């Protein structure tokens, strides 16, 4: 699934502000796309190819790395901004997406957040959440958001299908709430062995729940 146009619009706006008013023709960002991908890092921790959520394998024209890629010959979840060629991706930017593996938390925190979007990837491997966390400057080095996916239960429905109920775990944990920051999370579905997932998310407008088919 392509990323929401609002992200692309923001990047393009910032870019256009730095361009000469009389510049003509096509620029680096003219055909930019943004997609959730699994990025493969080689033995030197450089991304050499990605697999999109549509299942397409794209070779990276210019391998890249990041400080948070700490394991060689591994895969990383992220949003790739790129120009697309014939089975080739010309990278422009890559943002980390945190993967939340469901587990049962002892003390479940449900501090509110702003839910922007929620969808299942085309390949049915991830449930993706786009939220806005409230953030702000603080001298408290221990203050940081804690997030997760709390596994409530797994139940068998009347038709024999299985549904897992999840709660979006969120602890504001002392972070000031001055402005919002868009953040994306992915929850693996293939490990859950269910037909559908119902997720509950506490927002500033109250509890919302959404149901998604996993197969």
Notable characteristics:
215 residues, mainly beta, five-stranded mixed β-barrel, globular, Immunoglobulin-like, OB fold (Dihydrolipoamide Acetyltransferase, E2P), 2 domains, 51% strand
What do these coordinates show?
The protein has a five-stranded mixed barrel. It has a four-stranded mixed sheet with strand order 6-11-8-7, with no helix packed on it. Strand 7 and strand 8 form a beta hairpin. It is mostly beta strands and about 220 residues long. About 5% of the residues lie in helices and about 50% in strands.
What's the layout of helices and strands?
Layout: H1 5-16, E1 32-41, E2 47-52, E3 57-64, E4 74-84, E5 88-96, E6 98-99, E7 114-120, E8 126-135, E9 146-156, E10 162-171, E11 179-188, E12 196-203, E13 206-213
Number of helices: 1
Mean model confidence by pLDDT: 87
For the CA atoms, what is the radius of gyration?
19 Å
Order of helices and strands: HEEEEEEEEEEEEE
The top level CATH class name of the largest domain: Mainly Beta
Distance between the termini: 16 Å
Task: Give a brief outline of the structure.
The chain is mainly beta.
């Amino acid at each position: 699934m392509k990323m929401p146009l609002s992200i692309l619009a923001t990047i393009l706006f910032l870019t256009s502000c730095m361009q000469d008013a009389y510049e003509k023709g096509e620029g680096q960002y003219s055909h930019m796309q943004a997609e959730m991908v699994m990025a493969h890092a080689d033995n030197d921790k450089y991304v050499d190819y990605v697999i999109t959520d549509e299942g397409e394998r794209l070779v990276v024209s210019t391998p890249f790395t990041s400080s948070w890629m700490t394991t060689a010959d591994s895969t990383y979840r992220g949003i790739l901004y790129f120009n697309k060629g014939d089975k080739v991706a010309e990278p422009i930017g890559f943002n980390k997406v945190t993967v939340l593996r469901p587990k049962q938390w002892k003390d479940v925190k449900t501090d509110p957040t702003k839910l922007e979007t929620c969808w299942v990837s085309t390949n049915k491997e991830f449930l993706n959440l786009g939220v806005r966390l409230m953030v702000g400057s603080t001298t408290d080095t221990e203050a940081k958001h804690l997030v997760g996916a709390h596994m409530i239960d797994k139940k068998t429905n009347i038709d024999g299908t299985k549904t897992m109920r999840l709660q979006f775990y969120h602890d504001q944990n002392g972070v000031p709430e001055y402005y919002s920051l868009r953040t994306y999370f992915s929850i693996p579905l293939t490990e859950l062995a269910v037909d559908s997932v119902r997720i509950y998310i506490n927002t500033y407008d109250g509890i919302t729940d959404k149901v998604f088919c996993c197969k």
